[in-house]
Design brief:
With 303 residues, the protein is α/β, with parallel strands linked by helices. It has two domains: 101 residues, no CATH class; 183 residues, Rossmann fold (3-Layer(aba) Sandwich). The chain is 36% helix and 14% strand. It contains ten helices and nine strands. The chain has a five-stranded parallel sheet, sandwiched between helices. Strands 4-3-6-5 form a four-stranded mixed sheet. Helix 8 runs antiparallel to helix 9. The longest helix is centred in the last third of the chain and has 16 residues. It starts with a helix and ends in a 10-residue tail after the last helix. About 20% of the residues have low confidence. The structure holds adenosine-5'-triphosphate. The site of adenosine-5'-triphosphate has 15 residues, from helix 4 and helix 8. Keywords: ATP-binding, Kinase, Nucleotide-binding, Transferase.
Length: 303
Amino acid sequence: MLFRKLCTSLARFDLNPPFFHQKFSNPFPIPTSRTSFHSQNRHNLRFRTLNPATPRFISSTSQMGDSRRPPAVPIPPVATADKLELIRALEASLGSSFSSKPFSPPPNPLIIVISGSSGVGKDAVIKRLREVREGIHFVVTATSRAKRPGEVDGKDYYFVTKEEFLRMVQRDELLEYALVYGDYKGIPKQQIREYMAKGFDIVLRVDIQGAATLRRILGNSAVFVFLVAESEEELVNRLIERKTETAETLLVRIATAREEVRHIKNFDYVVVNAEGKLESAVKLVESIIDAEKAKVRQRSAVI
Ligand SMILES: Nc1ncnc2c1ncn2[C@@H]1O[C@H](COP(=O)(O)OP(=O)(O)OP(=O)(O)O)[C@@H](O)[C@H]1O
């Protein structure tokens, strides 16, 4: 800072700072005539000399008259100069020191809604995403449905009775809820608030009906991903092989899936979870999150 001030005042009096004399031989002696800015392209930085013997560094963004223009300072040759000296000279020439402030602020926490027909692989994709990605909170949905073999309360779902669930509704504790195949499912608000405040991205797993409700509530402040199998045939195979369905529920789920696929247009992204390609589907979801994080106009969700 002190050095810059010194350079600036010396340059103002058209004197070479003693520093430059001592450290290196200055190839651009301070001229007696001033250089002027000339550039049509604001991204180009150009040298233009009034006196060919005295090239000077000029900022292309400057449209200032001589009195407001930062005083020019000799820039040592890049190939031989000490890096620190070069930086100081550039700063002095530009009239301010280089900022270490990030060019772009940290991205906003994101709400990612993952939806798709029953059996398409929502749980499988989320389970894998959980293993490979940090900084994400997977909201545990509350449900009144019975626990399936292998499911853990508080990890896969909060398993509650119908009465408990309805009390949560009354207390306005759920962002959205629905009755799905005779069972209630809902998203607790508190978890989202708590983790977003800590800077986590939030993943919500909802059925198509839930995604439509969330779109109404959150609009474009969240990102909506529609998961599909590669074909209806594959979806049916997957549901049969899961061995969780009766003939009746299988029929209902498949008929519903036929109708649900028409809702793709209400989503931001579609991800194909093809047979044996779970890893690719997860990678694509990760890429979507990365791309969203790099957006200039960030989504900003408030719950
Ligand atoms: N890419 C894949 N390849 C093969 N099998 C898969 C793939 N993705 C998921 N599965 C399997 O398909 C079945 C259905 O997946 P999953 O339970 O994750 O679907 P879901 O969308 O969460 O269903 P629901 O909404 O009914 O809970 C599971 O047995 C799962 O292991």
